[in-house]
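Record filed here:
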Amino acid sequence: MKLPGINFDSPKYTTLLDNGYPANRLDVAIIGDGYTAAEQQMFNEDAQAVVDAFKSIEPMRSYISHFNFHRINVISNESGTIDTHVTPHQKPNTALKTFFSPMAERRLIGPDPWVMLVAKASGAPWDKLLVIVNAPRRGGATLLSMTVGYASRNSRDFPAIMIHEAGHVIAKVIDEYVGDLPDIDFAENWSLPNFLPWPNVDTNWKRPKWWRWLTPDTPRPTPNVQVNEDVVGAFQGAVYTGKGVYRPQRSCMMRQHSDPFCVVCTEQWLNAIYKRSKIADGFSPAYELTDTPLVRDAEEAMTFRAHVLRREDIKTTWRIKKLEQTRWRRRQITHDYLSFTTTLPANKVAGLTIPTAWAVECLMEDATERIRTPSVRSRTKQKHRWYVITR
């Protein structure tokens, strides 16, 4: 695909972190705007800084094996971004046409459909897009569609700003800071039916949507004081207003870039990760043909394995049964829980060995304490079954 005004380097994209099959990874593509041909090395370093931030911030750090990262080099004719908040107005000719919103000085955004079209033309595998803009001042934002995140490189903490924007794009959580909208004084401490679509904010402090995470005996609304730093409650002030809207914890990266993600946003990150990836890449032994059972000699030791992306917190259950039986027999695993060795006998009638059909099943789920919502836990589950005929 050839796009007007777009010049890709060769190759069109570069993989910065390759953890395996894109079909079983959350692929993030990082693309630059406002970088000229002479500034491509600067963009390369900026893109790596974003990947390094993912590697260092939880929960992405613990689940980094579920990610692939790709860099898309796009050459702009001029440096910078469109900015009508400065004098004189800046209107450089850039590849992605990013701009500071005329309605909000710090909101640096772009035309999402064009950005996605350019990313598609690059040939990079991607599920989510992040755009680093070579803007001369601090800024970042995500449009309400929450499909592409933008951040200016010209701020000391720009990788953290990009992680915040990735919270919108990937985890689908909303801002928890205040100040952009006026406070509605009469709404202070109100508890209304929830009408907000995002998982980390609520208008109902009596039973917020994160009720499973609430710290016992914590008052609600929860006082915004240091002693409550680690509790989960209903802290007033979120989604740009200080009255009538509540967040789960006092601090969160969706409120302040220097803070870690709160427990609710963390769980939503894991929900997003398991939407795009599974616990295991595959299982062995593999079937030679689809749906063809394995054939083995009776009493021959067989080892079954799950090839997982990460080992921590993975709960595994192995079970076997004869296909003529209705109940599974659970087996206690006394060694590496990701593999299971067993012998499967054959039936004998009048001294003759009769081929016998067996099913061996591996059931896995992520048992991390970072998940409490059943629908999220269910998303982590993975099952594989082998059919074996012994003779």
